[in-house]
Structures are given as structure tokens and as C-alpha cells.
Design a protein that fits this description.
The protein is an all-alpha fold. It has helices spanning 4-23, 28-31, 41-68, 95-111, 115-143, 145-153, 159-173. It is 70% helix and 0% strand. Helix 1 (4-23) runs antiparallel to helix 5 and helix 5 (115-143) runs antiparallel to helix 6 (145-153).
Length: 174
Amino acid sequence: MRSRSGLYNILLNTLLTLVSIACFPANPLVLTGILEIESYTVPFAAGCITWLFGIILVASPVIMFRKHGGVPIKKSFVHTTKIVTTGIYGVVRHPQYTGGVYSIFLTTLLWYPHLIFAMLGLFGTALIYVSCREEDKLLTAKFGTDYVAYMGRVPRMNIFLGILRKLRSNSRKW
């Protein structure tokens, strides 16, 4: 029998998957003609840059965990044995989730400005935020006080705050 927590995570992941599909930049609602939305050049170009930035964030754990996370040979990058605090992980704790917000929800809204994508994007971002909180609980259980200290230094998903903190930290070193 599944625990309440297990069912909660299944529901959360299912909802997140459905919202992500509905908001995916190669959007099924737009491509099938269900929604006809006018696109604008400047927001579309900004969306392309936002998408690329988000994809880089989404891919970062694969590289960073292999390089710095003590991942055993022939294991997936998710089997990290060390807390990674360098590179993008010195700016945000969850770059993959943050990248999902940029590459899916924000990009879609920039490419297809429509109220439904704004609402779905807010809902999807909230689901991702909740997923990050759950991930923090799991990582605290795995890494203990070291992860708690890391949580105090590096924001969960706010990349702008993370950059500001990093700049302030670096300026104190001078």
C-alpha cells in the first residue's frame, strides 16, 4: 500500500506533467488550432532567449552532478553523493526546476500571449515550487545539517536573488 506522501507526490507529478504539456512551447493547443493566438516579434525573440536560458538550467545537473557530485560510475546523475554548491548551484538550489519555469511556462507566454497560458503558467510555477519544497525535504534527510546550511546561503529558485547574493559575497572577498 502506498503512503499518503507517495500518493501526494504522484498527484503532484501528474498535475505538473499535464500543465507542462498544456504549456509546452511547441504548444498542442496552438498547433492543433484549438487556440488561435497572434504572436509578436519582440516577445517571441525574448521567448527564444528565455527558452535557451531555461534549457541550459535544465541540463545543468547532468553536467554539474557528474563533475562535482560524486556520482558512482555507470549511475544516473541523480545518484549524487555530495552536495554541489559551485557553478549554478551557488546561485540557486534547484536550477532544473527553475529552468523548467523559464523554458516552459515563461517561454510559452512570451510566444503565445494569452490569458490561459498566464493562468496555467502561474499554476505550473506553483506546482514546481511545491516540488522544490519536497525535494528540499528529501535532500535534508539525505545530507542533514550541511544541506540545511546550504539552504540558508542559496535561494531555492530565485535566480536574481542568487546572483545578487553571489555578487555581494564576491565583493566582500576583495
